[in-house]
Amino acid sequence: MRILDLGDAALTVEFGDAIDPALQARVNALDVAIERARAAGQLGGVIETVPTFRSLTVVYDPLLTRRATLEAALSELIDAADHAPVGDGRHWRLPACYGGAFGPDLADVAAATNLTPEAVIDAHSATEYVVYMLGFLPGFPFMGDVPAALQLPRRSEPRLRVPPGSIAIANGLTAIYPWESPGGWHVLGRCPVPLFDATRAAPALLAAGDRVRFTPVSVDEFARLDAELKAGRLDPQQWCSPAGEAS
Amino acid sequence: MSALEIRSSGALASIQDVGRRGWRRIGVPWAGALAPQLLRIANTLVGNDALAPAIECFDGGQQFVAREGAVRLAVAGDAQLEHLTAAGKRSLVAWRSLTLAEGETLRVVHTGAGRLAVVAVFGMARPLVLGSAATYARAALGGLDGRALQVGDRLSVIEPAPTPEHHLRQPPTPEAGPIRVVLGPQADHFAPASLEAFLTAPFEITAEADRMGVRLAGEPLVHRDAAAREIVSDAAVPGAIQVPGNGQPIVLLADGHTAGGYPKIATVITADLARLAERKPGEVVRFVAVSVAEAEDLARAAEQSLQASLGAIVPLAGDGLVDLDALYSRNLLSGIIDGRDDDGDAA
């Protein structure tokens, strides 16, 4: 563990530099400990925390506290987080319509991995992924690990427009784009469930530590789910089971 | 109620406040004014809460028209203004409030040394999204329909009472000299000579400079080795300077990504971030390193001098009954008055 300088209004507690559920567990443990301390009125001046794959960034107001004060207050919490067990988040089974217009890179990924498109879909949907962190775009989940047989570097030419809902892979990670955005990942399919809604109490559907699996659905089923969700007749929570329950 | 109509949005104009806090963990940047001190001065000039939403203008070209009644505005930032009335147009300097009668126009002709001006509007309430009215266009959050302002937009505002206008006689003078940074968090990903070059060489502001960040161009910075060109993504904050494989730094600003996979060589300190965002394409900047403790002291000193500016805001002489600026320009600077409205903007 080391503490890295991120200007005069943030510091980063770095637990390691790999993508590893054990590191993420320590990040989450420190995140929870800081949240608890703040709820108890401690750590004045802290604005927010940002958990990532392997580090927790603490953002603070330099008019209200100082790095030295904060670092001293954090040291005990950091020690405790070093021994955190890997937790169990909520389990999601999200619908995914693979291939066709929704998955323009499915054929290329199949060719590059010497698999049939069906085998790519099977491998991608058979794996349970951990949500390592949210970032890049509001609600964008970085999930892993993608099976070794599907791991490819990013596209050499990023797309200018990846449609919202696109499910994509790059290296060991998979993600769902909540927004239209440029993107360099390989797009395999599309998920109809909205990942971000500012009117929800928790705007992001997924949280770091959640587990996600994809259930392949047909184009017709995708269209039905998409229409029902847009009309507000389906609650995205229906694809979720709380922590501790098997999916 | 009156309305403020956007007659021209210029290069870019958007509604901003101090931004939304607490959602970086789900990938939502703060957004908010790139120069928060201008927001606070403009709002104080116009008689709003200092942290109320206002209109952030890039590079000038914006025009605002009062509709359905009077609208009081105030402009903070180094900007040249024109007030267009039925009688003609007159030039004004910023750092003051101004009440537009129905049909009158305020034009931000251009900005001066910096790119940014903030136009505060008396009594302009905006709905909060995730705790803030700041526009974050990528996710359609805040502002007006989650986007930058467009020609024809109308914002409803409270009609002001006929109270004196206010001004700030001595605008804050921006600090000169290099932009101060705290090195890290990934300064160790760069060859020592490149770290040295980063702190001595000039970097040009490129045309790719917006609310997300500013791309710089200079002698390419060299990573320690090929593996050091990327990191497992970690969090970024406004001010973080990331260096992708091409060696050209990108300074992240208010709308910048919350996390990223490029090494960050340094972070611009709080006190200097607006100063960097104000720089225009083609200008050259240099960086100098300070310690975290020094940067904290500088943030506190900057806040103190802002408080001094806010405290120095006073009613315009003549109690608003006689506009001395206008008299001055009419009597002594006759060339500025132009009865003909050559571009037909007087409504």
What's the quick description here?
Helices cover 26% and strands 28% of the residues of chain A. Chain A has 247 residues and is an alpha+beta fold. Chain A has 2 domains: 2-81, Gyrase A, domain 2; 91-241, Cyclophilin-like (Cyclophilin, Beta Barrel).
Structural description of this entry:
The complex is a heterodimer of chains A (247) and B (347). Chain A is globular and about 55 Å long. Chain A is built from 5 helices and 14 strands. Chain A is α+β, with helices and mostly antiparallel strands. Chain A has helices spanning 21-39, 67-81, 106-113, 117-126, 219-230, and strands at residues 2-5, 10-14, 46-51, 55-60, 91-98, 129-134, 141-144, 159-162, 166-170, 173-176, 181-183, 186-190, 211-216, 240-241. The model of chain A has no long low-confidence stretch (mean pLDDT 93). In chain A, helix 1 packs across helix 2 and helix 3 packs across helix 4. Chain A has a 7-stranded mixed beta barrel with strand order 5-12-9-10-7-6-13. In chain A, strands 1-2-4-3 form a 4-stranded antiparallel β-sheet, with helices on one face. Chain A has a two-stranded antiparallel sheet with strand order 8-11. Chain B has 2 domains: 2-171 and 315-336, no CATH class; 179-304, Cyclophilin (Beta Barrel), CATH 2.40.100. Chain B has helices at residues 36-46, 192-198, 270-277, 292-311, 324-332, and strands at 2-9, 12-16, 54-58, 62-67, 71-76, 79-85, 88-93, 96-100, 105-111, 116-121, 154-157, 166-168, 179-183, 203-209, 213-217, 234-235, 240-242, 250-252, 259-260, 264-268, 284-285, 287-289, 313-315. Mean pLDDT of chain B is 91; it is low at 327-347. In chain B, a hairpin with a 2-residue loop joins strand 6 and strand 7. In chain B, the strands form 5 sheets. Chain B has an 8-stranded mixed β-sheet. Chain B has a 6-stranded antiparallel β-sheet with strand order 7-6-9-4-1-11. Chain B has a 5-stranded antiparallel β-sheet with strand order 2-3-10-5-8. Chain B is built from 5 helices and 23 strands. Classes of the chains: A alpha+beta (247), B alpha+beta (347). At the A-B interface, strand 2, strand 3 and strand 4 of A face strand 13, strand 16, strand 19, strand 20 and helix 4 of B.
